[in-house]
Design brief:
The chain is mostly helical. The chain is 81% helix and 0% strand. The protein is built from 8 helices and no strands. Helix 5 runs antiparallel to helix 6. The longest helix is centred in the last third of the chain and has 31 residues.
Length: 188
Amino acid sequence: NRETYNFSALGVGLIYLSPFIGGVLGTAVAGKLSDVIVQFMARRNGGVYEPEFRLVMAIPIAVSTVAGLMGFGWSVEERDSWIVPTVFFGIISFGCSLGSTTAITFCVDSYREYAGEALVTLNFSKNVFHGLVFSLFFPHWLESNGPKDVFIAIGGIQIACLLTTIPMYIYGKRARMWTVRKRFMDKF
């Protein structure tokens, strides 16, 4: 807030270079790292590729987003030098870019014929949850509990959400085959 760091409007704007850089790096790294992991796993699977191999990216996503969220909240609460939360802000953006790139590639690999719809649905969902839903309660929560508790809780929620990739990795192929047999995707 203004009392803690006393940034000018320009200073606040310059802080956003950190998530910009983190996002660009995350997008660049996500594609290459995901492809390396997929190729390695396909070799281990007798040369057969499965879209669920993309879900292994949940590990670097979890590490970067959770470290970024918790580090950001903690550093702001402790009123560390401005550079510390700024770096964590970039790490959050890096992890979010890994996550969105992974989600998109997983959806496209799972249902190529519905790639356009998948992109629209992912972006719509992200904007509804982050833009609308969070704005309904986040400012009050932040004000009443402080940044450390709030961002540690959000980091915990992030871990819980990413743990759902484990059953999806295990049962994803069966789920995809079920949707094909039931012509589930044709109903929309």
